[in-house]
Write a structure and sequence with these properties.
The strands form two sheets. A five-stranded parallel beta sheet has the order 1-5-4-2-3. The chain is an alpha/beta fold. The radius of gyration is 22 Å and the shape is elongated. It contains ten helices and nine strands. InterPro entries: GlpE_sulfurtransferase (IPR050229), Rhodanese-like_dom (IPR001763), Rhodanese-like_dom_sf (IPR036873), Thioredoxin-like_sf (IPR036249), Thioredoxin_domain (IPR013766).
């Protein structure tokens, strides 16, 4: 390949990368743009997620609804749109769809509302945790060895993990207690742990954390973790 052609390709690639990065805003930049009167904030999560807590003045357009595209087409193209979801996947996809429809001023929240909350920014509709800190401590005191699973209803890996945990519960019911906690209903509680990918599994032995895992764990590996825990 000729040097000049390679140089042109490098410039084009770099500009594309920079363009993509400029559309993804960190929470601080996202917050600063919200003061602009021409800004429209789009929440593309589900109604259930929205009701648990959302950024103030956000408009809900459910990414998974049948009329999602038709709702996007009704938006005013002269406005600037700030888009967010839970962690970023749906907002990035929405941004690309809007670009294909001719919309120009588009930004998405890098890391979604999860990152927004982690950075300490407020949101409306936030409810108190269903399980208080005291109640959580009572759970830990209820049995010598406890496995806590933080799950969300929309997480496919959580559904897979649920099946494995149900099997484990049958085989180890005399040795370990498994407690499942809805993370969407206990946001503050979840924020106190380091793991961020659901499901989050936390193993306690005599009220002390033995290990903390996240994401789907295959049955054999999970059995290995449990066996080491009960020794």
């Amino acid at each position: 390949m000729k040097p000049i052609l390679l140089f042109i390709i490098m410039i084009i690639s770099t500009s594309q990368i920079l363009g993509q990065n400029s559309e993804a805003l960190e929470p601080e930049d996202f917050f600063n743009k919200m003061t602009n009167p021409d800004i429209v904030i789009l929440d593309v999560r589900t109604p259930e997620e929205f009701n648990l807590g959302h950024i103030e003045n956000a408009i809900l357009i459910d990414y998974r609804s049948e009329n999602f595209l038709s709702q996007l087409k009704k938006l005013d193209q002269s406005k600037t749109y700030l888009i967010y979801c839970r962690s970023g996947a749906r907002s990035i996809s929405t941004l690309e769809i809007l670009k294909s429809l001719g919309y120009k001023n588009l930004y998405e929240l890098n890391g979604g509302i999860t990152q927004w909350i982690r950075k300490g920014y407020s949101f409306v509709g936030e409810k108190e945790d269903m399980i208080s800190a005291k109640e959580y401590q009572k759970i830990l005191l209820s049995f010598p060895i406890i496995l806590i699973e933080f799950y969300t209803p929309w997480c496919s890996s959580c559904n897979q993990m649920d099946f494995e945990l149900n099997e484990l519960e049958k085989n180890y019911k005399e040795k370990i207690q498994i407690v499942k906690i809805n993370a969407d209903e206990n946001r503050n509680l979840v924020q106190s742990f380091t793991k961020r990918e659901f499901p989050i599994l936390i193993a306690y032995k005599n009220q002390k954390i033995e290990w903390e895992k996240s994401g789907y764990i295959k049955k054999q590996k999970l059995i290995e973790y449990i066996e080491n825990l009960i020794r």
